[in-house]
């Protein structure tokens, strides 16, 4: 079945550094991927829609220069948190449309926990 | 109009009992309603989903009831087990699934007591 893989699963970095998170669709091509952010005990908040070969579409209130998204191939989207600060610490989850049992479905990665010191 | 309201925020059920989680939406353009299960530190996984052309869908112990006129849908977990303890999110989107962005509810933390 369709699988979405994220890497790294957790990362700790110093304030001011940049961190890149990868999202891969392992056995299917994904022209569209979605990036979510989740704070502890809260819901998933859509950050942006990543489109292969074009610019990402950001949700209102999400800084595109802060959260750089690149979708360079049909199986890989990356989220780079630039000049990270403690308030950027969160659980970041990507998702992609795949197929299971012949039906389309949105598959989620395992998430990447970012801690900024 | 883009909100999906979910209740309760938390739920404690005895083993073998029925867990019921409710969601309500406003946007009548939504026509795909999935439920996701999330364990701590993991990404959400699809449990079951429904479209407005049916009022109920059952898969194993999980049932979605859908009321189009009321713009409400609910998840019923029959014979709840301790392994069902997780956070459950309802969502709303448009068909085909995964093509459009999903709007998630606020989540319900379910604890099933052994």
* Largest sheet composition of chain A: 7 strands, mixed
End-to-end separation of chain A in angstroms reads: 37 Å
Mean pLDDT of chain B: 94
State the largest interface. A-B, 27 and 23 residues
Write down the overall geometry of chain A.
globular
Query: How many beta-strand runs of chain A?
Result: 11
Structural class of chain B: mainly beta
Write a concise synopsis of the structure shown.
Chain A is mainly β and 117 residues long. Chain A has strands at 4-7, 10-13, 19-25, 32-38, 44-51, 57-58, 67-73, 76-81, 90-100, 103-108, 112-116. Chain B is 0% helix and 52% strand.
Topology:
The complex is a heterodimer of chains A (117) and B (114).
Chain A: E1 4-7, E2 10-13, E3 19-25, E4 32-38, E5 44-51, E6 57-58, E7 67-73, E8 76-81, E9 90-100, E10 103-108, E11 112-116
Parallel strand pairs in A: 2-11
Antiparallel strand pairs in A: 1-3, 3-8, 4-5, 4-9, 5-6, 7-8, 9-10, 9-11
Chain B: E1 4-7, E2 10-14, E3 19-25, E4 33-38, E5 45-50, E6 56-59, E7 62-67, E8 72-77, E9 86-92, E10 103-104, E11 108-113
Parallel strand pairs in B: 2-11
Antiparallel strand pairs in B: 1-3, 3-8, 4-5, 4-9, 6-7, 7-8, 9-10, 9-11
């Amino acid at each position: 079945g369709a699988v979405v893989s994220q890497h790294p699963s957790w990362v700790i970095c110093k304030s001011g550094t940049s961190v890149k998170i990868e999202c891969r669709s392992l056995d299917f091509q994904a022209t569209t991927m979605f990036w979510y952010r989740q704070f502890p005990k809260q819901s998933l908040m859509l950050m942006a829609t990543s489109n292969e070969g074009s610019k990402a579409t950001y949700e209102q209130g999400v800084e595109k220069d802060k959260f750089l998204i690149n979708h360079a191939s049909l199986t890989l989207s990356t989220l780079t948190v630039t000049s990270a600060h403690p308030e950027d610490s969160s659980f970041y989850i990507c998702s992609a449309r795949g197929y299971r049992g012949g039906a389309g479905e949105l598959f989620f990665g395992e998430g990447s926990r970012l801690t900024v010191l | 109009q883009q909100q999906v309201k979910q209740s309760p925020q938390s739920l404690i059920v005895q083993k073998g009992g029925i867990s019921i989680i409710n969601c309500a939406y406003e946007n009548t353009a939504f026509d795909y309603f999935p439920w996701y299960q999330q364990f701590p530190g993991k990404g959400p996984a699809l449990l079951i989903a429904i479209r407005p052309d049916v009022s109920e869908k059952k898969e194993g112990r999980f049932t979605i009831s859908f009321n189009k006129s009321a713009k409400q849908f609910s998840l019923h977990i029959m014979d709840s087990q301790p392994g069902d303890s997780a956070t459950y999110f309802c969502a709303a989107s448009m068909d085909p699934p995964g093509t459009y962005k999903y709007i998630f509810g606020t989540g319900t933390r379910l604890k099933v007591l052994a």
